[in-house]
Write a structure and sequence with these properties.
This protein is of the alpha+beta class. The protein has four helices and eight strands, in the order βααββββββαβα. The protein has helices spanning 6-21, 34-48, 115-118, 133-141; strands at residues 2-3, 51-57, 60-63, 69-75, 83-84, 93-100, 105-113, 129-130. The chain is globular.
C-alpha cells in the first residue's frame, strides 16, 4: 500500500462534501481522469524512485533508477483496469494503481513489463480502451520479483 499524503486526503474530503451538497442534482462529480492520473504519477514516482519526464513523452511518464522507461496508470474506480489511448508509445514498464480515497491509500495492481498488458487491447482502436482488470491481475500474479520495480520508500 501507498499511504496518501494529508493534502490528497483533504482533497477527497472536500470532494465528498461537495457531492453531498449537490446530491439533489444527481451529478456524481467523478474525480477520475487527469487529476487522478497526476496524483497516481506523483505517488508512484515517490514510492518507486521514478524520475518523471519534464516534457510530454508519448506513452512514457518517467524513468526508473535502472533506466527503464515507465508508464504510470491510476484509477479511482474499484473495478476498472488501466486505460490506454491509441498511438501512445510503449514503455518498458507499467505500474497501475487504484487509489482508494476512503481508506487513504493506493494499491499497486500491476508492476511489471508493459507489453503483456498491451496484449489485452485490440490491435487497432480509437478513443480510450481499458484493459480488463481481471486479466491485469492474472498477469501481475504471474510476474517474478526481478520483473518488478522495487519500492524505494
Amino acid at each position: 500500500m501507498i499511504i496518501l499524503p494529508p493534502s490528497v486526503k483533504a482533497l477527497f474530503e472536500a470532494h465528498s462534501a461537495m457531492c453531498g451538497h449537490f446530491a439533489h442534482t444527481g451529478l456524481t462529480f467523478t474525480l477520475d481522469g487527469k487529476l487522478i492520473g497526476d496524483i497516481g504519477e506523483a505517488l508512484v514516482a515517490e514510492t518507486f524512485g521514478i524520475t518523471l519526464c519534464r516534457r510530454r513523452t508519448p506513452g512514457v511518464d518517467g524513468h526508473a533508477q535502472d533506466g527503464r522507461s515507465v508508464q504510470i496508470k491510476a484509477t479511482g474506480l474499484k473495478k476498472s483496469g488501466p486505460a490506454f489511448t491509441p498511438g501512445e508509445g510503449i514503455a518498458d514498464h507499467l505500474i497501475f494503481v487504484r487509489i482508494d480515497f476512503d481508506l487513504g491509500n493506493a494499491k499497486v495492481l500491476y508492476n511489471g513489463p508493459e507489453a503483456p498488458v498491451r496484449r489485452f487491447l485490440p490491435a487497432a482502436w480509437s478513443g480510450t480502451r481499458t484493459a480488463r482488470l481481471s486479466q491485469v491481475l492474472v498477469a501481475d500474479a504471474a510476474l517474478t520479483d526481478d520483473q518488478r520495480l522495487i519500492r524505494m520508500r
